[in-house]
Amino acid sequence: MNNGTFGFGIIGAGMIAHVHAKAIGAIGNATLVGLHSRGIEKMEAFASQHHCKAFHSLEDMLADPAIDIVCICTPSGAHENPTLQCIQAGKHCLVEKPLEVTLEKCDSIIEASRQTGMKVGVIFPSRFYDQALLLKKAIDDQKFGDIVLGDAYVKWHRSEAYYKSNPWRGTIALDGGGALMNQGIHSVDLLQWYMGKVESVQAFAGNRRHKGIEVEDTVVAVLKFANGAMGNIECSTAIFPGDLKRIEINGTVGTAVLQESNLTKWEFVEMTEENRQLNEGMKGNALAHGGGASNPADISFVGHQRQIEDMIHAIETDTQPMVDAVEGRKAVEIVLAIYESAKTGKIVHLP
Question: For residue 323, which of 116, 91, 119 has the smallest C-alpha distance?
């Protein structure tokens, strides 16, 4: 940290790296120092666009004392090695979702973080929007009574060109899975954050549109939660035109629906003045972006900005970031259990 400003490095120069760069640029006490990527042309174009240094070797980047935090923006199945290198070099890390595509790789990152004291956060920006946090507080305050159902719907559109745009997309090794691991994992994370521990899953998966990829483009799963509630997840990249992701929480005395970053339903048996005002405010809700439903680039950087600010706060106060590596592992475990159930046709129990 120089003069109270945290220096950032980025590994990877794909679409999501640009979101990180914009988010860092919007934070007063953060600066983007530089980027490393295997693709030299993309790296140099990125560095020029975002006015930072292009590091031609990861070792050079990690040796730079101006860098405090590194954002890992490589393909999903290539998160472990660069994260471990950063940790060993004394850098804190923010890893794009998922933390990794196997539990063994997740655990190696968690262990390295524990041993060194370097902080690791996993990027789940959906948790950081105001109304997502409001819903979390209402659940924690038991405003819904006994939760009956918790459901997640991710009905998105991805073209054939999307899967052909990078050779790693749609592969088991580097994508780690399809619609659920790549797109739906944000909603899996939110759902488990709201509902608590998943006890068991039963699932079906297949390919309705994208027949040339190694992984699923459509999956449905039924979940049983440890608190006795049930729920389901529906996730696809085969649907036209694609819709905003949605979380529904249904309890014995209340219901809420979170669509992307906005609450669109908020009804309780006893409508307090606060609840009435919130309901009234929802009528003017408008999203500034499409949430990536039909265009992966159509996402806001605000959630990333807030999560990066949370990481800075965690370092300043020596606390854990809201979504640390242990927390980030939870969604991966649920996704892998769903895949196991879809493959075997059996109910899979967690852990």
Answer: 119
Give the integer Cα–Cα distance in Å for 142 and 343.
Answer: 36
Residue 43 CA, chain-centre distance (Å), reads: 24
Question: Hunting for tokens 């860092």 — which residue is that?
Answer: 24
- Which structure tokens are listed for 129? 């929007």
By DSSP bridging, strand 69-72 and strand 6-11 are parallel
Q: Which two tokens stand for residue 108?
A: 């190696």
3-state class (DSSP) for residue 280: helix
Q: Strands 198-206, 348-349: parallel, antiparallel or unpaired by DSSP? A: antiparallel
- Dump pLDDT digits (tens) for 87-133: 999 999 999 999 999 999 999 999 999 999 999 999 999 999 999 99
Instruction: Copy the structure tokens of residue 65.
Output: 């004392």
Q: Is the pTM of this model over 0.90?
A: yes
- What tokens does 25 get? 């640029």
What is the side-by-side strand order in the sheet with 30-36?
A: 53-54, 30-36, 6-11, 69-72, 92-96, 120-123
Paired tokens of 147: 């939760």
Gap between the Cα atoms of 119 and 123, Å rounded? 13
Name every residue whose Cβ is closer than 8 Å to that of residue 86 and which is 6 or more positions away in sequence: 11, 62, 70, 72, 92, 93, 118
Strand partners, 224: 200, 230
Q: Where are the beta strands (DSSP E) in the chain?
A: 6-11, 30-36, 53-54, 69-72, 92-96, 120-123, 147-155, 198-206, 218-225, 230-236, 246-251, 254-259, 262-268, 348-349
